[in-house]
UniProtKB/TrEMBL annotation:
Keywords: Membrane, Transmembrane, Transmembrane helix. The lineage of its organism: unclassified sequences, metagenomes, ecological metagenomes. GO terms for molecular function: xenobiotic transmembrane transporter activity. GO terms for cellular component: plasma membrane. This is Acriflavin resistance protein.
Length: 288
């Protein structure tokens, strides 16, 4: 209205002719990104489905409003008038100078395409390099400053034996300078309640005050309990990254005898699988 001296209705029509294509394109691009996320199955689909559908539906509504109600309101409410406010005039000058600089940069990019395509290729290569360094698991494990331990004695073991084993475990773990405190529960394990079961929660000192990560403490602890605690099955694990998505960090693997070969064949397959998994440098603390 100010630059071309058009009435409000004609100005709204001309503006919509210029930006309708951009609105539709942006909506379709974002929908193409988020809608496939809503179609995923399994745990990934459960986590992303509501997020993807909410964004997709809100984008469709936003595009509809931008192409229907917004131009009607602009034609009805906006009127040409002189800007006497110094703040608005300063903003307009800044906006126009920014727009002109952007147009010049785009024109320069188009007229010097090989140079900018080379820069784009470098950015893509850098992105692929960083992507290769990032954890590739579904929910990467994190050092949250707390780890857990499961203690299981032979069936029928008394609560006193369980408490004695927990006390030995406490004395072992508290020697590590990265461990701040150990909270123990006797008579209750992660698999259920029993006098022969126990669990422990190890709280580590703040990250800035320790040299070991939680994963290093877990490896150290598992190696120590194998050497010093022989009357119980004890293993340390990391906390799950997302609370409620499993009891421990890492992942579980289920081996099924679908061919009906029997227990001896299944046990042999389990031993073979464990042997190969323990040799894999990307895995640690593989156990049944």
């Amino acid at each position: 209205m100010r630059e071309e001296h058009l009435p409000p209705k004609e100005a709204a029509r001309k503006a919509m002719r210029q930006i309708t294509g951009a609105i539709v394109a942006i909506t379709l691009v974002l929908a193409a990104v988020f809608i496939p996320s809503a179609l995923q199955t399994g745990s990934t689909g459960v986590i992303y489905r509501q997020f993807a559908l909410t964004l997709s539906i809100s984008m469709v509504f936003s595009a509809f409003l931008a192409m229907s109600f917004s131009p009607a309101l602009c034609a009805s409410l906006m009127h040409p008038k002189r800007l006497d406010n110094a703040l608005f005039r300063g903003f307009n000058r800044l906006f126009e100078s920014t727009r002109a600089a952007y147009v010049r940069r785009v024109f320069h990019s188009v007229t010097h395409l090989p140079r900018w395509m080379t820069a784009f290729a470098v950015v893509v290569a850098l992105g692929l390099f960083v992507l290769a360094k990032l954890p590739g698991s579904f929910v990467p494990e994190e050092d949250q400053g707390d780890i857990m331990a499961s203690i299981q004695l032979p069936p029928g073991a008394s609560l006193q034996r369980t408490e004695a084993t927990l006390h030995r475990f406490y004395e072992l773990m508290i020697k590590n300078p990265a461990v701040h405190d150990v909270f123990q529960v006797a008579g209750s394990g992660f698999a259920g309640t029993a006098e022969s079961a126990g669990r422990a929660f190890i709280h580590l000192v703040p990250w800035s005050q320790r040299k070991q990560t939680a994963f290093q403490v877990i490896r150290w602890g598992n190696s120590q309990v194998k050497k010093q605690i022989h009357n119980a099955s004890v293993f340390l694990v990391n906390k799950p990254t997302i609370q409620g998505l499993g009891q421990f960090g890492g992942f579980d693997f289920y081996l099924e005898d679908r061919a009906g070969l029997g227990r001896p064949a299944l046990n042999s397959a389990v031993r073979t699988l464990l042997g190969k998994a323990r040799k894999d440098p990307e895995l640690y603390d593989v156990r049944v």
